Amino acid sequence: MAKVRCAWFDFTSCEGCQIEMTNFGAPFLQLLDHVEIVEFREVMKETTDEPIDIAFIEGSFSREEDRARLESIRERAGVVIAFGACAATGGINALKNHMDMDDYKKCVYGDDSNMPHLDTQKAMPISAAIKVDMAINGCPMSRDEFVRIVTQVIHGTEKVYVPSYPVCVECKLRETVCRYEEGDHCLGPIALAGCGAPCPADGIPCEACRGMVVDANQESMEKVLQENGGMSEKRAKDKSRMFTANFRSDA
Amino acid sequence: MCDGNNNVGQDGNILLPKEVEVVEAKKVTASETHFVLKMKNGDAMDYKPGQIVEAGVLGYGEVPLGFASSPTQTEKTGTFDLVVREVGKVTKALVSLQPGDTMTMRGPLGNGFPVEEFEGNDVLIVAGGIGLCPTRSMIKYILDKRDDFKKFTLFFGSRTPAEQLFVEDLDVWRGAEDVDYKEIVDNADENWKGKVGVITQLFKELDELNPETKVIICGPPIMYKFVIAELKGFDVPDENIFVDLERRMKCGVGKCGHCQINDKYVCMDGPVFRFSEIKDLEEAI
Amino acid sequence: MTTQNASIKVKHVTRVEGHGNIVVDVKNGTVETCEWRVPEAPRFFEAMVRGRHYSEVARITSRICGICSVGHTLASVKATESALGMTVSKQTDLLRRLLKHGENFDSHIVHVLFLVAPDLLGAPSVFPLLETHPDVVTKAVLLKKLGCDWASLISGRSTHPTKVVPGGFASLPGDAYNPRMAEDELKKLKKMILDAVPMVTDMYEVLLSLAGNIPAFTRETEYVALVDDVEYGLYDGKISCLMPDGARETIEVEDYKSVTNEWVSPLSTAKYTKHNMDSYAACALARINTNYDQLHPEAKKIAEGLGFAVPCFNPYMNSVAQFIEAVHSAYMAVGYIDELLEMGIKDEKPVEPTKFSKGASAVEVPRGLLFHEYAYDEEGLCTEGNCIIPTNQNHANIQLDFDKLVPELLEADKSEAEIELALEMLVRSYDPCISCSTHYLDVTFKK
Amino acid sequence: MSGYYIPSEGLQSFAQSLMAKMPVVAPVAKGKRFIFDQLGDVAELRLDYDTTVLPPKKVFFPPKQDLLEFDEGKATSCLDPQAKVLLGVHPYDIKAISMTDKLFSDNYADSNYLANREVAVIIGSNVQTPYERAFYGSIAQDLELVGHDAFLTKISDGYVLDVVTEKGEKLIADLGLADASAEQTSEAEGVNAKADEDCPVKLPFAAGDVSEKVRNSFKSEIWDELSKDCFSCGSCNLVCPTCYCFDVQDEWGLGASNGKRYRRWDGCLSSEFSEVSVQGGSENFRENRAERYRHRFMRKTAYLNDKLGAPACVGCGRCAGACTADIADPVNTITRIMES
Lengths: 251, 285, 447, 340
Ligand SMILES: Cc1cc2nc3c(=O)[nH]c(=O)nc-3n(C[C@H](O)[C@H](O)[C@H](O)COP(=O)(O)OP(=O)(O)OC[C@H]3O[C@@H](n4cnc5c(N)ncnc54)[C@H](O)[C@@H]3O)c2cc1C
Ligand code: SF4
Ligand code: SF4
Ligand code: SF4
Hints:
The structure holds 4 protein chains of 4 kinds. Chain B is an alpha/beta fold. Chain B contains 8 helices and 15 strands. In chain B, a hairpin with a 3-residue loop joins strand 3 and strand 4. The longest helix of chain B has 13 residues. Chain D has 12 helices and 14 strands. In chain D, the strands form 3 sheets. Chain D has an 8-stranded mixed beta sheet with strand order 3-2-6-7-8-9-1-10, sandwiched between helices. In chain D, strands 5-4-12-11 form a 4-stranded antiparallel beta sheet, with no helix packed on it. Chain D has a two-stranded antiparallel ribbon with strand order 13-14. In chain D, strand 2 and strand 3 form a beta hairpin. Chains in contact: A-B, A-C, A-D, B-D, C-D. The site of one iron/sulfur cluster (SF4) has 13 residues of chain A, from helix 7. One iron/sulfur cluster (SF4) binds next to helix 11 of chain D.
């Protein structure tokens, strides 16, 4: 089997998904038997102008000026994978999408906020700019899912199965005591699974970093957040802005 | 039902498939491939028309597929046929197999058509699109044992002439004396000289239909309702109508639950159902 | 002088986290422009935390940076604890220190072995080294994995930790759901660290053989780092400013703004800082210059072996300082684990807030000093936030290093390629984390 | 067979001597709840548990179970049954296990379940602390309590251990347990006879009536109303001791051609569960929440009754507690339907 040419590109993000690539240990070296890394700015100087088999794109699309670069990657790549939550859904960066630009600029840069290089637009998934074939979701991306998807793509599968059910399923499969039973709250019932539900297992709520399931029952979620999660109506309404701003019915 | 002997793999693991050799692989339409297959290790494939198998490729998964050949052929040649339409992950892996490659298989599974009940009766088969695959098994069976059946009528509808399956068979049936074959397409092309329209139009050409006729319907869900309405017009009782249903199936042996329609498991109680049994099951059709 | 004019254009200098530009313009032997620029897309975290509940704030600000997310999380929960009047338990304090060492070890291994070592070996990246130095790369990968597992065991995961929450920990180390299992997990970690010591020693030998390739450049500057009574300043303490003449000044964390004095440059989406001098450095070098005495004896041995002496004013030596710190962290961790096991692990719930006000914190992240500050309203919702990250604090210092280095290199008749490499290596030695500060490292030479 | 007596303070050493023979899986505390887990320290055994998050079916039918491994086109079975003691199983869970035993052995016997089941020794236990949502006292009453090998009953000053199979007898033969006295035996009988009375919630309808009425409500609009808050999260399926649906997926390994096929618990409440490709397109036979929600209740109260001889619900109450929207409680739902 010829090695698959892979490249990594980054946009607005914390680069944590790229760093997760270094956290595999020995399996990473095994993966290098099938994968040739041809571009990865964070760890290497080499770049390529040749066609790429798989382009992993990290970061959200948050500046119009990034569109051209995204398009050129799309042109060169056979498969484009949104790498991590920022690229797949807009990620944490979309937490400011409901705010007014002048307001958030002023908040951070004060009187200097009118300098033009500080302008941004709403943080969107890269699919807002180019066609994306699949996503390795999560904040940070799930290493297990990375291996699962990449090995399938290497073996020629174009349509990789990824779960469409909520995080509660994975929570049950690992027998985590539900946050609600511990007197906490959780967005698991509307959150897209695939991560293996690490957060509730570690004792914190699921913040839905992979976005929402299709047909998420947002109304019921608000109700549960108030009735069982003990939140005020306002907090319950604002709760899902953290990672799922672009999924909300008001987005 | 056939006994389970064919089914049980190593360690008695019912979910462990056996190996099947691809003898021929012929692309018959843009999306369908016709396979001729043979069990490896000299095992026999002992099935009834209308039964199914779980066919797969290791690393991609398994999917339910209906036999497209008649057991009468398998008895003679030791081979059997499947037709696979490429729609997704597993079917893509299946259609990429070449002669000499290995396909994995569990089966035969399911009930199949109640052949004994059909014997000595008139038979009408209404097949739409890929619904011709599982019914081909029965058609071939009837044609091979023609004397066991009375009048045999076959309706076949497809979306376009290019999507017609088994073109060699169709040629034979068009000219055959012992089958009343009628065909129609939803949309014609410039070379099509036949009828254009929906499959139910073919009923208009029938002067009469013996209410004792045993009818098989297999095609897209939308077809069932309209065909059954036509049959009502000829007073065919629900007990004489047989439908072939499709559901997602993971195990094929009545465990995984995916194919369940109310009380019924399509993989065990079906895929062939007497219409009278399921007509009140809301989720069935 | 032959390099009267220089014309080099390199786009996307690599092996740093985030994007930054260098613009150097030399005409007739005179440096006309020499600028370090950060055009990373701004991300506005301080605006995004407004209105969020205190339990969510660290989860948001962790996403400032995927590499020092443990540090951001710790700084964030500490600032929140200070604002909400929460005093954490001894167990929490020890576990967090153990975690902090885990992050330091983890990040330093990546930086020194994956990002800097290729420069010293003249390779474009770590991947060609797989062919030439397979043994070294394999060990580096295993050590990196150890760092990740170590931090993950305590914090849930090394990128965007889960278990670290205001008031303590959301759950026990590892997959433990009771104290007995937690103690087993810590024993496992101790064994993992001790088992890795021979690999660390091997890496020391490699570094020793390459030490000669580290450029000799010095520039006296102010060093800012944490000082802590308990240990070599990392997790907690006060701010110390060390002047080139050895003068020291200690400042309370609440008064961090009197040190950082942030200003916005039109060249950058990140903010710049300055204190007593025109710039200061906040990095491993700053820490080791400030706290050398508190290094673990085994780490001091490594420092001596590498010929490292304080005070050191060569910014390129920051990578060596990082390696020494990695060794320090490994030994310190073993001590902390022993202390925890001796105390016996208890299943503690995070402490609750006692007030709602404003509070600041400082934590040393692998690349320098980090400040977080928040204010909360009576509902526990954040009303304002401020994060000052080390790379921001180093931007001005990098600029001044450039200002001294470029003429020296021109003087020494270096080729364009050599100058380019020297500048890239300088930027890299600071281990900048630009996405922290707010992506693109372009080096542009104009004639 | 025979009854033995274990004094209160002897319970841990009893468990310890079992642990010396083979792994013991028993209830232990996890946060505010309990789970069945392999005992690491005998002091952690909690026979006073109310109920566990997941039912003990996980011991035979793990949430994720490898079915086969393959390499270079050759597949081999992953069956690897490990003998263990399953200690402290409540009667409702024993009933559920005998239901899954039947379901996995009917028609085609599934050795992936049965092999694990056969090597396990089950020691039941009476309910010392009933789960607040439990209604086992008023459902599946006619179902015989079978399938376990021994049963522990808490009495005033210890436990009576009833050994009911040879497998059970073999396990404890060399432990030197004292025989239970006639008083102890009759005290235990008394405890078990009134166990159902202590069950906190009661379902006041006969199974046959429920089955009929629920079936007849198939087309009722009540399902829309009942399922309005449903998240399609499937928690109600996954925690249920009598649910056994699964999904099968293939997964490649890191080598060139190796991998495995596994199954994982699935639930009819998830929307992908009933998706099919029909004629190449995609269709969902239970597209909306109400249809899926209804399917579960049909299965629990009607569809499997003939096969199992009782409704496919043993009244553990786990689904009621697991449903974040609190709409999965069979008692509430059945009552609403019966009263509609
Ligand atoms: C009784 C029966 C007989 C069949 N006979 C034939 C036949 O003779 N020839 C033929 O080409 N096809 C037949 N099918 C359909 C075939 O099983 C599906 O096309 C196949 O399962 C799709 O799998 P995939 O992995 O390629 O698609 P996927 O990538 O999984 O998905 C494509 C679509 O198929 C659906 N799907 C996934 N798994 C299944 C499943 N197990 N059953 C049904 N839909 C599924 C998905 O929801 C999706 O909409 C039959 C199905 C049944 C139930
Ligand atoms: S903890 Fe969250 S994800 Fe897990 S079951 Fe409860 S609500 Fe669902
Ligand atoms: S009924 Fe409750 S537990 Fe079941 S799928 Fe709906 S929300 Fe989830
Ligand atoms: S339906 Fe609910 S109460 Fe009944 S057995 Fe299942 S989980 Fe227990």
